[in-house]
Amino acid sequence: MMQSKLASLTLKGFFALGLFLGALFSSFAASAQQAAPSLPLLFDARERLARPDLSSLVRLRFLTSVDFPPFNFTDQNGKLSGFNVDLAREICSELEISDKCQIQAIPFADLRDALAASQGDAVIAGFAVTPELRRQFLFSRPYLMLPARFVRNLAVPLDGKTAAALSSHPVGVVRGTVHEAMLAAFFPTLKAEPFDTKDALLAALKDRKVDAAFADALQLSFWVSSPASAKCCALFDGPYLSEHFLGEGMTIMLRQKDSVLTSAIDHALATLSRNGRLQEIYLRYFPYGLY
């Protein structure tokens, strides 16, 4: 049975490739005039993870998909691209095994079985970590957390710069999602207005039927910088992180027998986090930031 992508983001459909690329390229020009958004370090700067010996490794085959932009997709030239793809290449470079690395895209529904059948060595495609999967596979340390954020309509005056300023304003949320549950748990005094779909929520926010919304920061970040928002809105307060509601974050999935390779990937991720190369990849795909 296919696992849902991380934190039930439902990015497929939201990120039509044209919308993503348009927002991304327009973002670079604007972000050049702003301070670069910072990627929170997920590794302790004082922590040093051992680098295992990979001299006997014949090859490292990363498996991904092409339906999860901006993490993995095919660009306008048909080339496999995305945050996860660039990160996989940087991991191989850091481990000095670039000549042994391969990255292959297959349908998302086939990734789990392909890894179990040793048709690849590591999956980097946004699988949500679940207890069931942990019984079958190993996972790297998280390399990116996807937070929740508020977005506000700029035409609505707010008395403050924190969530407390929304106390007398209707805040939209998609019904039945982890974000609805998180909003109720984190902000029980806010007046939540549920909508059946994300599109209905964002249309209501744009039309001032609600003054703010609470949802996935990744979706909101690209929406506010895209033509679809008509510059009506901006991210507000946060970010808000919760493993209980949003999961463990972006990880790499490996076979149970590959504990040495998992440790090597953790070493590479920690190094890339400390030396700024992970931040560089982050800024390529999230010039406005998520945090």
Automatic annotation (TrEMBL):
Q: Which organism is it from?
A: Rhizobium sophorae
UniProt keyword Signal present: yes
UniProt name for this protein: Transporter substrate-binding domain-containing protein
Specify the superkingdom: Bacteria
* Keyword set, alphabetical order: Signal
Keyword Signal included in the entry's annotation = yes
Q: What is its main location?
A: periplasm
Q: Where in the cell is it found?
A: Periplasm
Q: Which SUPFAM superfamilies match?
A: Periplasmic binding protein-like II
Coiled coil feature spans = none
GO cellular component labels:
periplasmic space
Which N-terminal stretch is annotated as signal sequence?
1-32
Q: Where is the Solute-binding protein family 3/N-terminal domain?
A: 59-289
